[in-house]
Amino acid sequence: MTDLARTARLDVLVEGYVRRPHVAGTVSLVRDGDRVIVVDPGMVADRDLILRPLRELGVRPEDVTDVVVSNHHLDHTVNIGLFPVVPVHDFQSVIEGDVFTGRPADGTSLAPGVRLLATPGHTPQDVTTLVGTADDVVALTHLWWTADGPAEDPYAPDRDLLRAQRERVLEVATLVVPGHGAPFRPGSSTPR
User: Fold this and answer.
1) What SS3 state is found at 38?
2) 126 in helix, strand or coil?
3) pLDDT tens figures, 95-119
4) In what helix (H) or strand (E) does residue 175 lie, and over which residues does it extend?
5) Least enclosed by CB within 10 Å: which of 61, 105, 160, 176?
6) Mean pLDDT throughout 46-75?
7) What's the domain count of the chain?
8) How far apart are CA 188 and CA 192, in angstroms?
9) Is residue 189 part of a domain?
10) Within a domain: residue 65?
11) What is the CATH number of the domain that holds 78?
C-alpha cells in the first residue's frame, strides 16, 4: 500500500457506539479529487446525525459519488437510501441501481488516496477502506469495534482469520476508525 496517494480528506460524521440496546455504526466521509465517498451509512439515532454534519461540511446527499459498506449488517447499511443512486461497493461487487457488477474488493481503487481491502474477520464479507491523508494512512474497518477490540469478536466466525486481517491492516495503518468507536492510533495494546 506504499503507492496509496496522500491526497484524501477524512471526516468522521458519526462516532459509533454499542450501548445495548442502542447501537450506532461509525459513519465517515472521504473526499479525494472528484470522489465524495460515504463509508458505512448505517444505524444512527436520527438520520439528521448524518445529514447535518454533511451540510456543515458543504456536502449535499446528491454530491455523494460512492458508498462503501464494511459489512452487510444493518448497523452499517440501513441509511444507504439517503443518497441518490450511486455505486455501492462491498466485498464482491459494485451495485448501482439494479445493476450488479461482480468484482473482488481487494485492491480496488476508488481514488488515488482511497483503496478497498477484502478483510474477512468480523464477518466473512468485511471490507476495509484505506484512506491516504496528508498525515496518516487511515483504516476504516470493522476488524475492531473500538480501540479495545473486543479481542474476541463475538461475531467473528474464524478467530485466526480475524487475527491475520488485523495484522495485515496494522502493517499499513497509522490511524484506525473502528466500526463502533473513536478513531485510535494502533500500538502494542491494540488487540490482534
Assistant:
1) strand
2) coil
3) 999 999 999 999 999 999 999 999 9
4) strand 175-177
5) 160
6) 97
7) 1
8) 9
9) no
10) yes
11) 3.60.15.10
Task: Reply yes or no on whether the pLDDT at 32 is more than 80.
Answer: yes
Q: Classify residue 117 as exposed, middle or buried by CB count within 10 Å of its CB (0-12, 13-18, 19+).
A: buried
Distance, in Å, from the CA atom of 151 to the CA atom of 93, rounded to the nearest integer, reads: 29
Phi, psi of 74 (to 5 degrees): -60, -30
CA 162 – CA 151 distance, rounded (Å):
10
Which residues pair with residue 113 across a beta bridge? Answer: none
Provide the pLDDT confidence category of residue 1 given band limits of 50, 70 and 90. Answer: low
Cell numbers for 98:
439494479
What DSSP letter does each residue of 100-123 carry, written as one string? Answer: EEE---TT-EEETTEEEEE--SSS
pLDDT value for 2: 65
Question: pLDDT at residue 147 above 60?
Answer: yes
**Torsion angle, alpha carbons of 21, 25, 26, 27, to 10:** -130
Q: Which domain holds residue 18?
A: 9-177
Q: Are strands 175-177 and 35-39 parallel, antiparallel or unpaired?
A: unpaired
Q: Which three cell numbers stand for residue 140?
A: 476504516
CA atoms within 13 A on the CB side of 32: 22
pTM of the model: 0.96
Q: How many CB atoms lie within 10 A of CB 69?
A: 25
One-letter amino acid identity for 85? V
